[in-house]
């Protein structure tokens, strides 16, 4: 445990440096910053949802600039093709052979901007990359670099020209972060920083080896057996609320998948690391629950008719399940 604490103290200095660099372009949005850091140190995917102008794209770009990793931004459009993402085979007339031209997905951090604007063929190509960390071009399979994570954005208010993401793909995102408007004071700081002063340059402060070390350290964070049971109860309550005396069954069409159990534990460990702790506390789980579960609990027509959101269901579950 002492060795882990020493590693946490050393890694925390790097994490603080990343935070400070990101803050040069990101005002407020502490939860967004921590969510992106969670994705980075766990090497998992994140879906960012918010109306235009809330720094979704800027925050991802700022994070990528703090690390010496390959970064590509892909603007998703209705006419995008799978080959535009993963690459394709090109015929060489002189030799009569085919050569492979790899696409932008062969980078460490992929910003999938407005991901819900691309059709299903593109989504299926991206799904293989997200889940298997590999892509297939022709009859050959190519492995993606490590770490590999997709940070995707989508606009919740614009429906024309968009394609709802398949539930199987949505489930691959570890977190779904909802971004809201900044407060009045934060709005003034944005104005001062972006209009009335020269933008600060973001410096790279971490590399791939340090990200790998963070990822390995997350798995060594201690979690008590009672907290493991707490996580299982939270997920199971979303599937069978009646077993936990929860009167919300009519609002839930499908509960969270087993992937939610794994990601909730992983996110809680990451939050402990971000707080410089070698162990998980109940608040780590409760804080991560909304981001891990909101896109995995599918609501019924009754819930939609009564304007009940998944956050309301999650809150009911958290209030009912006793904290160890």
Task: Provide a quick synopsis of the model.
The chain has 324 residues and is α/β, with parallel strands linked by helices. The chain folds into 2 domains: 2-192, P-loop containing nucleotide triphosphate hydrolases (Rossmann fold); 222-320, Helicase, Ruva Protein, domain 3.
Detailed description of the structure:
Helix 9 (225-239) packs across helix 10. The chain is built from 13 helices and eleven strands. It has a five-stranded parallel sheet. A two-stranded antiparallel sheet has the order 3-4. The protein has two domains: 2-192, Rossmann fold; 222-320, Magnesium chelatase subunit I, C-Terminal domain (Helicase, Ruva Protein, domain 3, Orthogonal Bundle), CATH 1.10.8. The model has no long low-confidence stretch (mean pLDDT 89). It is an alpha/beta fold. Helix content is 46%, strand content 16%. It has helices at residues 2-22, 30-42, 56-65, 82-86, 120-132, 167-170, 184-194, 208-220, 225-239, 258-274, 282-293, 301-305, 310-320, and strands at residues 45-49, 71-75, 87-92, 97-102, 109-113, 134-137, 140-143, 149-154, 173-178, 252-254, 298-299.
């Amino acid at each position: 445990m002492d060795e882990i604490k020493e590693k946490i103290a050393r890694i925390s200095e790097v994490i603080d440096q990343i935070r400070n660099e990101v803050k040069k372009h990101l005002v407020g949005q502490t939860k967004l910053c921590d969510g992106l850091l969670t994705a980075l140190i766990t090497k998992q995917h994140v879906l960012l949802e918010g109306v235009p102008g809330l720094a979704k794209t800027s925050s991802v770009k700022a994070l990528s600039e703090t690390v010496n990793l390959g970064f590509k931004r892909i603007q998703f459009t209705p006419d995008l093709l799978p080959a535009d993402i993963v690459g394709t085979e090109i015929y060489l007339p002189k030799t009569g052979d085919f050569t492979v031209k790899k696409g932008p997905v062969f980078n460490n951090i992929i910003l999938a901007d407005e991901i819900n604007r691309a059709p299903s063929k593109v989504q299926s190509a991206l799904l293989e990359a997200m889940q298997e960390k590999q892509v297939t071009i022709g009859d050959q399979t190519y492995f993606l670099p490590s770490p590999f994570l997709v940070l995707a954005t989508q606009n919740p208010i614009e429906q024309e020209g968009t394609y709802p993401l398949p539930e199987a793909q949505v489930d691959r995102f570890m977190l779904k972060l909802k971004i809201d408007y900044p407060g009045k004071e934060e709005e003034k700081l944005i104005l001062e920083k972006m209009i009335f002063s020269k933008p600060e340059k973001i410096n790279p402060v971490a590399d791939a080896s340090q990200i790998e070390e963070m990822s390995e350290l997350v798995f060594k964070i201690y979690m008590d057996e009672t907290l493991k049971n707490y996580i299982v109860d939270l997920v199971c309550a979303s599937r069978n609320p009646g077993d936990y005396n929860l009167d919300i069954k009519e609002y839930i069409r499908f509960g969270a998948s087993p992937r939610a159990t794994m990601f909730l534990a992983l996110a809680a460990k990451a939050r402990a690391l971000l707080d410089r702790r070698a162990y998980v506390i109940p608040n780590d789980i409760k804080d991560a629950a909304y981001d891990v579960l909101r896109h995995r609990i599918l609501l019924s027509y009754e819930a939609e008719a009564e304007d009940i959101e998944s956050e309301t269901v999650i809150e009911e579950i958290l209030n009912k399940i006793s904290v160890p």
